[in-house]
Amino acid sequence: MRIEQLRYLSDLQFTNSISKTANRFFLSQQSLSNNIRQLEKELNVTLLDRSPFGVILTKEARDLLELSDPFLKQYDALQNQFALQNNQSDKSVKQIKILVSSVLVSGVLPMAIAVFQKRHPKIRISIREASYHDIVPAIKEKKCDIAFLSINEDFFLEQLTEYDADTFHHNIMLTDRLVACASIASPLASKEVIEQADIATRPFTYLNVVPLFKTSGNNAQRALYVSNNTEVHRLLMKEMDVVSLMPRYVFDKMLDNKHFVARPLEGAQQIIYHATLYPETNPHPLLKELASIVASVI
């Protein structure tokens, strides 16, 4: 359960409309619906009833909001207090340079920046995509103010050791797992676990993870495609019976479960970090505010 999910539900009780609430929070209707479904699944209850007049909150949803609304008001009061303090720091920050190596963050960054710039309209923001190889060196050399990346735990820890993590700051927004994905039409769709042998006998791709399997040799050289381009992975799975390896949360956000399935991969229990990096050990409050907005919508 996340604060933003409760906010969406609270707003729906007034709009009775998925489209109106989605617009108010700079979300797509699908993203809003997915957030509500995830909350329903977590709580094992139905929260919304659909009708010709829009969506209506169930009794369970109303009971949930009765408990959560006081908490949301207290949280807003805290945010407002810190926003006032942060506004006094605006003069010292005129531009924020962002590096991104995360398809997950790329998908929500526009709406996060829209929220941030409503609060701080005078701050100029620039965004540049970078590979996972370039992110940590760029942070060390202070070529950006903040960076977002999705990365395998092993590779990330190696990078922190190699580049002396004591001189910069990082925060894990979300801990994820590697999964193997395939088309629903693939013979693999009926399997509970996709085996290493399946990877050896058909093409596979990497989406938004470092191509690193310590137990299987250099898989990166055997991969058909390594990129953050979600659409190409989608087409390859549909047209060629490709297996695509990606973080579970990326699958949930970027691919629909009507046409694709996600399964554990045998012998590959890799942890994926969706992380924020700062070039300073004590990041500026405005940078932490921006990172907090991003984390709230992924």
Question: Helical stretch count?
Answer: 12
- Overall 3D shape: globular
Give me the Rg, rounded.
Answer: 21 Å
Q: What fraction, in percent, of the residue positions are helical? A: 40-55%
% residues in beta strands: 15-25%
Tell me the CATH topology of the largest domain.
Answer: D-Maltodextrin-Binding Protein, domain 2
Q: Provide the low-confidence segments as ranges.
A: 214-218
On the 0 to 100 scale, the average pLDDT is 84
Class of the largest domain, according to the CATH hierarchy?
Alpha Beta
Find the structural class using helix and strand composition. Answer: alpha/beta
How many strands in all? 11
Number of domains: 3
State the distance separating the first and last CA atoms: 13 Å
Series of secondary-structure elements, N-terminal to C-terminal = HHHEEHEHEHEHEHEHEHEHEEH
What is the CATH architecture term of the largest domain? 3-Layer(aba) Sandwich
The fourth-level CATH homologous superfamily of the largest domain is: Periplasmic binding protein-like II
* Sheet of most strands: 9 strands, mixed
